[in-house]
């Protein structure tokens, strides 16, 4: 085989964040930047010789070029077989499924998730291990360490592989299969959900829905599954054509960025159900008519009703949520008599619990929900889960949520983001909060008493590994919580996230505007963290 060994100068900034290495496209276009990171991944995989890998991305700008480079490097690094999604496209959940289905050594997923794309946008690359989930920190740290001293990479000088049709190719000793990006994923969904019932609902004249693919990777999945297979009318899927720059939009399914979908669901058009997914298809937003379901409530409701879905009929083993996610799912777990786990932010922390069979469902406030069917969060899965519930219950989204609140109480919840603030100011703000830990317990603030104040530390119950400083928690005696965290996925400066949660058991008080219901906590957050003083911002940039 003709292998080129190319000398390169190591970079020192290839430290993966919450979800892989995420940088501006411009950074990735620096000489050998992509190659260095990819070689570091291969170097961290001693068992790579002859192994199988899955490869695909969310279709953003630089996706195709990167795929060709990775194929050439994989051949030169002894990989035996690579399955690549047609057109270089694989949603993150579909990639996770393929890794598991083919018992691959892992997968390389090209995505910067919900970050904007295009030549001035972001790009990202992450490695998922053989369980289909994001690589654990020990692995990403090893990649980072390797990248810092890497002085050469291996590549084969082959012609680009045609990616636009399904087919097989042999590159030296490596076998490449270009596979249909949707088929296997759809088959998995069909095993879990009652497609006949959902299809009846979607074909009914009395029901209409919109799914916003935000010009990102779920377009082809949603067209095939919702419209072609399940019979939803054409036009159900909005922005279904994946574009390299996501049509100039911000492919993040929340109230701020899915504006057109929000406007439709809050219009007189009487659309019963709305949903959206992000750049790489792992996030979801769920809407009813004139109604927004918080991701935390969504997880709690899916868990409480899981027995109505064929794939979870036998019951669920446990539920996990990330620490800043509201405690609504814990109440369901308590009622079901199953364990509830609280993990740091980042999907990788659910992997061990899922592998050990300790949980079946998991989710995060950041619009991520999933189950043990794969090891990633799964946007379309959540949409199909809701559709399955709507088909069984024959009730509106709003009434399902209201009944849930009536039964369990409502955890009012909101997140306020302050984006692109100088990193030094953000760190000072966090330090300023830490300095108050000792004196806060017992204090009365805006009528609430502080129970505890600390940095969240996680001890993985399966392997005993610990993760410190995973967000600052101010806990109150009435179960309210105020959480401060710096984002691990931003690419410019720091993003401060303030998470606000307050429990209300009285159904007569379940119809308030969350921002009003949380007003005291918002004031406490400002007082304790001196947000305007440290960040120069009076208002949050994004409120979800
Ligand atoms: C990615 C990860 C999630 C995580 C989210 C928020 O989407 O896959 O697991 O919750 O980022 O991360 P951040 O650090 O920006 O709050
Ligand atoms: Zn994503």
TrEMBL record:
Catalytic reactions on record: alpha-D-glucose 1-phosphate = alpha-D-glucose 6-phosphate
BP GO annotations: carbohydrate metabolic process
Needed co-factor(s): Mg(2+)
Molecular functions per Gene Ontology: magnesium ion binding; phosphoglucomutase activity
GO cellular component entries: cytosol
EC identifiers of the protein: 5.4.2.2
InterPro entries: A-D-PHexomutase_a/b/a-I, A-D-PHexomutase_a/b/a-I/II/III, A-D-PHexomutase_a/b/a-II, A-D-PHexomutase_a/b/a-III, A-D-PHexomutase_C_sf, A-D-PHexomutase_CS, Alpha-D-phosphohexomutase_SF, PGM
Keywords, alphabetical: Isomerase, Magnesium, Metal-binding, Phosphoprotein
Top-rank lineage group of the source organism: Bacteria
Span of domain Alpha-D-phosphohexomutase alpha/beta/alpha: 14-153, 184-287, 296-408
Pfam families reported in the protein's UniProt record: PGM1_C_vert_fung, PGM_PMM_I, PGM_PMM_II, PGM_PMM_III
Family: Belongs to the phosphohexose mutase family.
PANTHER family: PHOSPHOGLUCOMUTASE, PHOSPHOHEXOMUTASE FAMILY MEMBER
Protein name: phosphoglucomutase (alpha-D-glucose-1,6-bisphosphate-dependent)
Species assigned in the record: Thiothrix eikelboomii
């Amino acid at each position: 085989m003709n292998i080129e060994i190319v000398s390169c100068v190591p970079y020192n900034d290839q430290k993966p964040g919450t979800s892989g290495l995420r940088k501006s496209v411009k950074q990735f276009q620096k000489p050998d930047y992509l190659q260095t990171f990819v070689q570091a991944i291969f170097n961290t995989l001693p068992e790579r010789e002859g192994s199988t890998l899955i490869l695909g991305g969310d279709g953003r700008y630089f996706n195709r070029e990167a795929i060709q480079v990775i194929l050439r490097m994989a051949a030169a690094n002894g990989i035996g077989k690579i399955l690549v999604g047609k057109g270089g496209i694989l949603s993150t959940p579909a990639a996770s499924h393929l890794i598991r289905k083919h018992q691959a050594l892992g997968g390389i997923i090209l995505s910067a998730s919900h970050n904007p794309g295009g030549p001035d946008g972001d790009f990202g690359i992450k490695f998922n291990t053989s369980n289909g989930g994001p690589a654990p920190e020990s692995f990403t740290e090893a990649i980072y360490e390797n990248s810092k001293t890497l002085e050469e990479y291996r590549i084969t000088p082959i012609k680009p592989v045609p990616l636009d049709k399904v087919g097989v190719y042999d590159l030296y000793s490596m076998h490449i299969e270009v596979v249909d990006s949707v088929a296997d994923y759809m088959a998995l969904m069909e095993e879990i959900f009652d497609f006949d019932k959902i299809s009846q609902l979607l074909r009914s004249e009395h029901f209409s829905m919109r799914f916003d693919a935000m010009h990102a990777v779920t377009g082809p999945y949603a067209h095939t599954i919702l419209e072609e297979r399940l019979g939803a009318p054409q036009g159900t899927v909005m922005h279904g054509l994946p574009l390299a720059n996501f049509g100039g939009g911000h492919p993040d399914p929340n109230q701020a960025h899915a504006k057109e979908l929000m406007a439709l669901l809050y219009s007189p058009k009487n659309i019963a159900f709305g949903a959206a997914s992000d750049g790489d298809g792992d996030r979801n937003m769920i809407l009813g008519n004139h109604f927004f379901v918080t991701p935390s409530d969504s997880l709690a409701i899916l868990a409480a009703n899981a027995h109505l879905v064929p794939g979870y009929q036998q019951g669920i083993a446990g539920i996990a949520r990330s620490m800043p996610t509201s405690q609504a799912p814990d109440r369901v777990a308590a009622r079901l008599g199953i364990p509830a786990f609280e993990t740091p932010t980042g999907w990788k922390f659910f992997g061990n619990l899922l592998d050990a069979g300790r949980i079946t469902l998991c989710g995060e406030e950041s619009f991520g929900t999933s189950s043990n069917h794969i090891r990633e969060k799964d946007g379309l899965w959540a949409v199909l889960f809701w559709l399955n519930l709507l088909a069984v219950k024959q009730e509106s989204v709003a009434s399902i949520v209201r009944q849930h609140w009536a039964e369990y109480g409502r955890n009012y919840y909101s997140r306020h983001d302050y984006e692109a603030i100088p990193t030094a100011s953000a760190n000072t703000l966090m330090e300023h909060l830490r300095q108050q830990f000792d004196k806060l317990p017992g204090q009365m603030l805006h009528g609430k008493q502080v129970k505890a104040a600390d940095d969240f530390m996680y001890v993985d119950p399966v392997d005993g590994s610990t993760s410190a400083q995973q967000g600052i928690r101010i806990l109150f005696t009435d179960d309210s919580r105020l959480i401060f965290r710096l984002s691990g996925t931003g690419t410019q400066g720091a993003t401060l996230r303030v998470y606000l949660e307050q429990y209300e058991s009285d159904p007569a008080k379940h119809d308030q505007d969350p921002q009003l219901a949380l007003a005291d906590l918002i004031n406490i957050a400002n007082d304790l963290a001196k947000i305007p003083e440290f960040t120069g911002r009076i208002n949050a940039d994004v409120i979800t």
